[in-house]
Amino acid sequence: MSLNKKYAYPTTPKAKKEAIILGDKYRFTILTSRLLRIEYNEDGYFEDNATQTVINREFDVPNFTVEETENLIKITTEYLELTYTKEKFSKQSLSIQYIGKNNSVSAGTSCTIWYFNQNAPLPGTARTLDGVNGACALEPSIMSRHTITILDDSSTATLREDGFIEPRKHIGIDNYLFCYGDVRKGFDFKACLKDFYKLTGNTPLLPRFALGNWWSRYHAYTQEEYTSLIKRFKKEEVPFSVAVIDMDWHYVAIDSKYGTGW
Asked: Alpha-carbon distance 28 to 241, whole Å?
């Protein structure tokens, strides 16, 4: 079975070799001077396929330097210095000093040092409002009032070359660090969003048919009822573009030993 090519999403998932620093269990990819991919896997496996979130890693390689000893790696870009002790990622083994463009921020300045898993993002959005009555918790965004935010792609399903989706076979750490904060100027929201779109793809335009009137009712329609509904719209000369058969088109009241109908 293969996916029709017209439905396959175009991807460029492999980063350029010159942007990669590779070890037995770790891999760093310098996508931009302020956007890094950091990976750790005890099996030594690193994902090169696109994922449901990330479709492009083929960025132009920025200027950076690497200093390495037996137990330490230091990566320096135009904006930051990453220090790693070649151990499992932790607050003790991995940190980043934000130095500002061309070393414009003094070392040790408040809020310029990031430690692994430290994250204080601004809230983003909610996946669904089903069952919500009042306020609801929002998922984290890639924006912050601080220096660095995390996009955690560790558990996202991958896109195979044939266009189909499959779960990850090797679970490890797969994070993207957005280093767009500046203690003097604040977070560079526009630059962060621009590189986010480059990494994940532009937001698709809504199709024309979705901009008209919709009908969607949570109701167990019969075929005859739905046919009559469409005819009623025509009779009343009410145009609509999309008719949605909501949830009750399948069985929901099933024996609990089989799980849930949802």
From this structure: 48
The residues, ordered by sequence, that sit 6+ positions from 44 with a Cβ below 8 Å of its Cβ are 24, 25
Provide CB contacts within 8 A for 62, sequence distance 6+.
19, 30, 31, 32, 33, 77, 78
Tokens of 67: 């200093």
Q: Distance between CA atoms of 124 and 193, rounded to whole angstroms? A: 13
Beta bridge partners of 177: 36, 150
Side-chain half-sphere of 75: how many Cα atoms within 13 Å?
A: 26
The whole-model pTM stands at: 0.80
Distance CA 223, CA 42 (A): 55
Contact 240, 214 (CB under 8 A): yes
Encode burial over 143-181: b for 16+ CB neighbours within 10 A, e otherwise: bbebbbbbbebeebebbeeebeeeebeeebbbbbbbbbb
In this structure, are residues 56 and 29 in contact, taking their beta carbons and an 8 Å threshold? no
Three-class SS of residue 95? strand
- Judged by DSSP in three states, 136 sits in coil
Is pLDDT above 70 for 104?
no
CA distances from 206 to 5, 11, 209, 215, 217 (A): 21, 20, 8, 17, 22
Which pLDDT tens digit goes with each residue over 180-216? Answer: 987 667 789 999 999 999 999 988 888 887 888 889 8
| CB contact set of 212 (below 8 Å; sequence gap of 6+) | 239, 240, 241, 242
